[in-house]
Specification:
Elements (H helix, E strand, L loop, with lengths): L3 H5 L2 H10 L1 E5 L4 E3 L7 E7 L2 E5 L9 E6 L4 E2 L12 E4 L3 E7 H10 L1 H23 L11 E2 L12 H10 L1 E5 L4 E3 L7 E7 L2 E4 L7 H6 L11 E5 L7 H6 L6 E4 L3 E7 H10 L1 H25 L15 H21 L6
Helix pairs in contact: 3-4, 4-9, 5-10, 8-9
């Protein structure tokens, strides 16, 4: 069971969900989400459990369960992040869910910034927990050629100029030499880190995840032999899952070449998120989108090493505009930091 919603949402938020949702019983095997279809309802598991499964392209009969979603888990929120849904979600047993129309949730998010800050925070935490569950089970992941993360600059289009101005005022720039470990598996994450220039490799321990051993037995050298799960590009936020939940990082992040990062201390950002709901709603939405992209990248590793996720066939005009706007915002951030033209 996850109590994320009960910890993050306010009584007013919970009352709204209760008033606008309806209880829906599900039979074993009943489907609530289908791949590559935009869900029109969001579901909260109250009792029972759901299974999220996916199949290699062209092999629908070979679907395997990627994750089990128990009490307190939300599913069907991909439209809130303008993201595709690549999985099938079915009831693994008799399950009771609270069903909420996506259009009503979207309207509430647009009109109530406090609700938006809380819900996007909860979604980001749940996505981070799902990604962590995959990364802490390395025997399930089939390593192969490293995969690049998607166009992460897109999400910067979600931020306002004032958000970027605040971030650039309270962080610092650091140059990371090629081959250096930036974030070590098993250690806490003390800053929000944004990759400004260069490339980073994300890898996970291939044995049972033991953060104490990784931290205290001097295993840094062994991480050099870890297979790469993904290559992080400009605009990525390495270590974001542990920044959110304060738990030891399940991955190691290393620079592939000389890279430039920007780091904002956790206490500084935490204070801003507590006092500015408008900023928090946009920040947590950006984080949720980035974690969902990483989750899809790692999830594909469970099926076949070289599999490419066919998540959307074409970019529509809104998508193209978002990519362009995100690139502009990120370029403006670089200009504010005085790093344009470097590297």
């Amino acid at each position: 069971m996850t109590d994320t919603l009960l910890r993050v949402l306010s009584n007013a938020d919970l009352d709204w969900m209760i008033a606008h949702g309806e209880h829906q019983p599900l039979k074993t095997g009943q489907s609530v989400l289908s791949p590559h279809q935009v869900p029109d309802r969001m579901f909260l598991v109250i009792e029972g459990s759901l299974g999220a499964s996916a199949a290699p392209q062209g092999a629908l009969d070979e679907a395997l369960i990627i994750d089990k979603l128990g009490q307190g888990e939300l599913v069907g929120f991909s439209p809130l992040l303008n993201a595709p849904n690549p999985t099938t979600v079915k009831a693994l047993q008799s399950t009771l869910v609270l069903s909420l129309p996506v259009t009503q949730v979207q309207a509430k998010l647009a009109e109530d910034v406090t609700f938006a800050a809380h819900l996007y925070h909860a979604i980001a935490l749940q996505l981070a927990d799902r990604l962590r569950r995959l990364l802490e089970q390395p025997d399930r992941v089939r390593f192969g050629d490293e995969r690049s993360s998607g166009d992460v600059l897109t999400v910067f289009g979600e931020l306002r100029d004032s958000d970027i101005d605040w971030l650039t005022s309270f962080g610092q720039i650091e140059t990371i030499p090629a081959g250096r470990v930036l974030l070590q598996a098993g250690r806490p994450v003390e800053s929000l880190t944004i990759l400004l220039e260069g490339q980073l490799a994300m890898s996970a321990p291939q044995d049972t995840f033991n953060p104490l051993a990784l931290c205290f037995l001097g295993l840094e050298a062994s991480t050099r032999d870890q297979a790469t799960l993904a290559t992080l590009s400009q605009g990525s936020m390495p270590g974001i899952i542990s920044f959110l939940d304060f738990r030891p990082l399940p991955v190691t992040v290393r620079s592939l070449n000389e890279s430039l990062i920007f780091a904002v201390p956790r206490p500084t950002l935490a204070t801003k998120l507590q006092v500015d709901d408008s900023f928090a709603s946009r920040f947590y939405r950006v984080v949720a989108i980035q974690i969902m992209e990483q989750l899809q990248t790692v999830g594909m590793r469970l099926m076949e090493p070289g599999a490419e996720a066919n998540l959307d066939d074409e970019l529509d005009m809104d998508d193209l505009n978002q990519v362009s706007e995100g690139a502009k915002k990120f370029s403006w951030m670089l200009a504010q930091l005085g790093v344009n033209g470097r590297g």
